Amino acid sequence: MSDDVVWHCIRHGHCSFMAKIETGIFCRNPYNVTGICNRSSCPLANSRYATIRDHDGIFYLYMKTAERAHLPNKLWERVKLPRNYEKAIEVINKRLEFWPQLLVHKIKQRLTKMTQYRIRMRKFQLKVREKLMTVPRKKTQIGNTKERKADQAAKIDNCIRSELLERLKNGCYPSGIWNYPDKIVDLDEDVPEDEECELEYVEPDEIGMEMDDDMEDFESLPNGEDDSTDADHVLHELVEKKKKGSKIGKRSTKVMNELLEQDEDMDSRQRTLV
């Protein structure tokens, strides 16, 4: 099929690449050199055609000839262009030496435009910009619902804790029971931060305890100047005896007997004096 017949069918019939807008008619075919829908730029209506395409930052020169029209899988010949602009122009001139000058000029214009936007892309990548991230609305709603329920549960726990503390302070619970969880009752709240409670363990004073027990026995003795020396003597003897073989906190039977004898002697002396 000739190129004129193909163009007639595309122009006056239906073309899936044609885009009609207010400013004009454009072509969405990726092999189109100019992007405009016309006879010289249509890659379908020209058996001899060339263009430039970009693959991940690398430019390739695509060429189509009528000799390969019967082989769709080998219709386009691809040549990699160097990254240097001047060397890429030299490759284009060498490959398209006998091609129409209008098509070669359009290919060079396309190379220039693509080189410029590649430079701008590099500049944009070097700049630090904010990256906008989309968040699904459903996940946001689920997160807000969970947060609201957690706040409600925390308020209920705080109310229960405050109510239990008030009841504890008012004396609703027995004073001997302190097996409350740490989350409900914090016993450290009643103690000021500056004051620290220190517990000390001290050994009992053996002599002091024995002296207290012995002094209770001497309460029944009469008071007098003559009796003071005898009481001191007896007290001294009792202390020495207890140091030798008495138990802490218990009265010895021997000491009790001696105290009774001393009481009887004192009574007899008082009677004789009278």
UniProtKB/TrEMBL annotation:
- Which Pfam families does the protein's record reference? Mak16, Ribosomal_L28e
Q: What is its main location?
A: nucleus
Q: Where in the cell is it found?
A: Nucleus
Q: Where is the composition biased (Basic residues)?
A: 242-253
What's any GO biological process attached to this entry? ribosomal large subunit biogenesis
Q: Which residues form the Ribosomal eL28/Mak16 domain?
A: 5-117
**InterPro entries, per database record:** Mak16, Ribosomal_eL28/Mak16
One cellular component term from this protein's GO annotations in UniProt:
nucleolus
Kindly state which keywords UniProt assigns to this record, in alphabetical order.
Answer: Nucleus
Stretches for region Disordered? 242-274
Gene3D superfamilies per the record?
Answer: 3.30.390.110
Superkingdom of origin organism: Eukaryota
Recorded family membership: Belongs to the MAK16 family.
Q: What protein is this chain from?
A: Protein MAK16 homolog
The species this protein belongs to is: Urochloa decumbens
